[in-house]
Amino acid sequence: MRISTVKTLAVIAVAIGTLAALPAHAGKTLDSIKARGQVICGANTGLAGFGAADSTGKWSGLDVDICRAVAAAVLGDAEKVKYVPLNAQQRFTALQSGEVDVLSRNTTFTLTRDASLGLNLTAVTYYDGQGFMVPAKSKIKSATQLKGQTVCVQSGTTTEKNLTDYSKAKGLGIKPVVFEQLEAAENAYFTGRCIAYTTDASGLASTRNKVAKVPADHIILPELISKEPLGPMVRRGDDEWYAIVKWVIYGLLEAEEYGITQANVDAMKASSTDPVVKRILGTTEDTGKLLGLDKEWMARALKATGNYGEIFERNVGPKSALALPRGVNNQWNKGGLMYAFPVR
Prior knowledge:
- The longest helix is centred in the first third of the chain and has 20 residues, at 2-21.
- The relative contact order is 0.15.
- Helix 6 (158-170) links the parallel strand 9 and strand 10.
- This protein has helices at residues 2-21, 28-36, 62-75, 91-96, 111-116, 158-170, 182-190, 201-211, 239-257, 265-271, 275-281, 297-305, 308-315, and strands at residues 39-44, 52-53, 59-60, 81-86, 102-103, 119-121, 126-128, 130-135, 150-154, 175-179, 196-200, 218-220, 228-230, 233-235.
- By secondary structure, it is α/β, with parallel strands linked by helices.
- Mean pLDDT is 93; it is low at 5-23.
- The strands form 5 sheets. The protein has a 5-stranded mixed sheet, with helices on both faces. It has a 3-stranded parallel sheet with strand order 4-1-5.
- The two termini are 39 Å apart.
C-alpha cells in the first residue's frame, strides 16, 4: 500500500513538472495584437516626460517607452503601437471595454483599483508622491501654509481624494477647485484662479516645464502627502498577457542591474559569460516560450528602448527637460526601490 502510494505521488510530481515546462498559450489579447499587427496603448492626453505627442504626432515619454518595449517584445517592432490619449475619467473604462490592450498612463496602484475594477496591476515603473506647486511670489514655503486657500485639482484621481484627506488631517480647510480635464486644472492655476496646483510631484515638474511662461516663477513645495506607485494596468482574465507586460518591465529593470544597454545588447549576447545576462538575452534559456513568445523577446525590447535606467534618464532624468532626480526610482542596490523579480 505504501509503495503504491509513493509510486502514485511520483507520477503526479512528474506530470506537474512536465506541465510547468510546457510553453504558455498565447492568450486572446496577444492573439488579437498579432492579428492586427499593433499594440493599442492607453496614454496620457499630454504629460511631458511620461506620455505626450509632439507637433508631428510622435509620442514620447517613460510610459510610452514601456508600450514600445512591449511592442518590440511581442511584434518585433517598437513602432507598432497605436496611442489612445485618455483622461483620468476615461482610462479605466477604455481598458475594461477592450478599447486599449494596456493602460500605461501615470496611474497609481491602490487596493480599490486592484480589487474592484476587473484590472490587474503589473509592475511599478515610477514611484511618486503628491505635492503642491505655488507661485514664487506667494511666499508660501510649506503646504501647511495653504490653510483656507484654493487648490486646483483634477477630478477622478487619487489626487483629489488625497487633497481632501490631507486637508482634514491637518485642519487646513483647503478649498478644492475641481476640473475634469488636466489642461483645465493647469490653466486655472496659471491664470490665478487657485493659489496652488496639486498632482504627483513628477506631474508638477512636467506642467511647470511645459506650461509656465517662466518656470522659475513657480516652486514645488517640499512636502509629499501621499505614496503614488505608478505603472501599467491590463484587464483581468488573460493571465498570459498580464505576464508578458509584467515581465517586460522586470526585464528592463534587471537588464540595468546587470549592465545590459541599448548599445551593447549584441556584444553582450556574443561575449558575456554571466548566466543572468545570458538568460535575459535568450542565449542559454528560452524564457520566451513560457510567455508565448520567442527567445529574442527581451533582447528586442532592450534594443528598442534601452534598459529602465536609460528610459528614465532620457525622459525624466537630471539631463532631461524635467530634470528629476533618480531618488527612490534607483535600483535597490543603489538606495532605491526598484527591485526586479528575476528573469529565470
